[in-house]
Amino acid sequence: MQVDFTARELTVKLVYYGPALSGKTTNLQAVHELVSEDSKGRLMTLETRDDRTLFFDLLPLTFNSKSGLKVRVKLFTVPGQVIHSATRRLVLQGADGIAFIADSQRSETKANQVAFLDMQKNLRDNGLDPAKTPLVIQFNKRDLPDIRTDVELDALAKRGREPVYKAVAVRGTGVLETLIGLLERSWAQLETEHGLEEKFGLVPEEVLAEVRRQLGAVETEEGPQ
Amino acid sequence: MSEGLDLNLGDIDGLEQVIDREALAEVCRSFFDLFGISIRVFSRTGALLSDVHEEQAVCRYVNTLSEGRRACGTTVTEVKHIGATDGVVVHPCFTGANYRVVPIEYHSRHVGRFVIGPYLPAERTEIPKTLLTVDPNIDADKAIAALGDMPRVREETALRIAHHLRNIVDLILFSSHRAHLTSEMHVASVRESYRELAEKNDALQSAYNRLKELDQLKSNFLATVSHELRTPLTSIIGYSEMLTSGIAGDLNEEQNEFVQTIHDKGDHLLSLIASLLDASKLEQGQLTLNRVPLDAGQLIRSVVTTIIPNAKKKGIAVESQVEEGVPTVIGDSIRIHQILQNLADNALKFTTKGGTIILGARATEMMDDDGGGFGAVLMAASKPAVEFRIEDTGMGIAQDQVERIFDAFYQVDGSSTREHGGAGLGLSIVKRLIEAHGGSIRIESSVGVGTTFFVTIPEAPDTFDL
Ligand SMILES: Nc1nc2c(ncn2[C@@H]2O[C@H](COP(=O)(O)OP(=O)(O)OP(=O)(O)O)[C@@H](O)[C@H]2O)c(=O)[nH]1
Ligand SMILES: Nc1ncnc2c1ncn2[C@@H]1O[C@H](COP(=O)(O)OP(=O)(O)OP(=O)(O)O)[C@@H](O)[C@H]1O
Ligand SMILES: [Mg+2]
Ligand SMILES: [Mg+2]
User: Fold this and answer.
1) Of the N and C termini of chain A, which has fewer Cβ atoms inside 10 Å?
2) Which domain does B296 fall in, by range?
3) Looking at residue B462, what is its pLDDT?
4) How many Å lie between the alpha carbon of B37 and the closest alpha carbon of chain A?
5) Residue B22: is its pLDDT beyond 60?
């Protein structure tokens, strides 16, 4: 998080992490399509080869708050291919929260695990404590055959500490829920660490309500699955 | 938290940080060509980044008048000081023209602004009083005529033009920013990968150092233990010798046989310990050679003599083939003998009944360089040498084992090792002794057919003074 007092703005960095081809870039594309014009900037894709991310994608979002402070959210994706570990570490620097995009296909279970371990290592290498980094998990590609079942994921979600979302990123399903869930978690952590409400008059509920409004998400009582 | 970022991912503070100046200049130029309106682009801090303008006739005229010049200066200063947070500002000039100041935002941050104008709003139909009264000496007809040259634009059109221009600048900014980030990432990734490699190298280096230390410890240990073993062993051998010689009274046949066995096994153990000591001394480079001129033929004959009894027992023929004119070798007699003896022992050990062992020597030449190096053709000089040859018709050595048999304690796997015994030290000692003499060893072998070891020792070592 960065605060610029003269510009009255606060910048939060969120990173989409996960194995190669799990749909990180697709998530950002979907967010870009779904979000209203005035909240979003251009989606920037840095260098790709055969549609595979080489450096990162970046989507800047801006939210207004009642306190007058501008809340800028920068969404990044990392390159998932194993060889780009150094780049992933660079992109992960200073992350305020992570959405781990897992591939639901059974065959990708191992790849998910490897990427998750890689993420923990890279967090530690960046001086971040994995246990304290806000994290949500998305199981993407729910539309494909031979995936891990809902029952299985629900059982896993109950056991784990992180909220789990199911998504079909190519259709935009579950994408905003994941993002909002990530923002909620990350904001709660920032509030604990920096006392944003006291310092800047940023009331968490108000900020998140505004975020939901601007993201065009209908408020429901339903939490993550 | 973003503190301590090496790379400020995705943020820029000012236009000037990333924008492609040439692209910006080109856009401004074509804007001017299209509309005839002056345009200036400023960074957030007010530095002029691009400027395409043409002095208007009316401006030129009022600047010839002292009051007019002052009024003009004031207007320009006012326009310059319009804050970035004021939004789009339309600033009027006393001539009736307007300046339009448009902030440039990027990722919802102010990064600069552009100013278009002066232009005359097309809606304005009368000559403003402020122009005609700006200076006591103004010539109204001249001023009005000059004003006629000013480009005319409807405010609504100016708004659209400004909007359009802002989009173009935004695009240039976006692609410039992307190029900027890409190159930053390139550099950062390379640096990061390099750092990673350097770390791995360090880890390898320290692991290597640790292994070297352990190796050293092992050598020291071997040396100490061998030494400590030798003293009591010499006593055992000595006393058993005395017993067999009858000093302590006569032994019956059985007793004599037992004591003889103790003596033989003790001898064997002693030679094993001697090998261990040699190996560790050689490893630590503590070996000193006692060099003298040696006759190759005589060396061969002496080795043949020592193996003949055992060869006969095993039913193996031994031949020696020493060619004419073999030069004298300068070397340590005991060590060279040890080399040949070890190889001959191996030949005998790994050859079965009915086989043949040939020990030979011939004159040859060797390069004083490893050969094949840079400029070797010009630099390497050949020198006379002796090639010893120990050939057997034994079991042979598989190609993938050839490198490894020179390692200390290494023995080619299988029952043969157990059958034949030995510590696996012979060849490692042989190799080091040959190297100490500046020589080389080479193997030709074929499994089931036989093995030939070639040992080349230079006639005189490079730094030998008799
Ligand atoms: N069927 C299906 N395909 C998907 C879904 N989400 C993404 N994909 C496809 O998966 C492929 C990879 O998606 P990307 O978003 O480029 O993956 P990535 O995680 O950014 O991959 P890297 O950049 O290599 O790390 C593309 O062909 C997407 O169309 C989904 O929900 N269902
Ligand atoms: N002439 C040969 N024919 C076949 N194999 C050989 C021959 N010489 C050496 N070897 C192989 O190389 C291994 C190493 O030889 P080396 O002389 O170092 O040890 P060793 O003879 O087994 O024991 P030591 O010499 O210490 O008594 C042997 O165990 C054997 O497997
Ligand atoms: Mg990608
Ligand atoms: Mg041997």
Assistant:
1) C
2) 291-458
3) 53
4) 30
5) yes
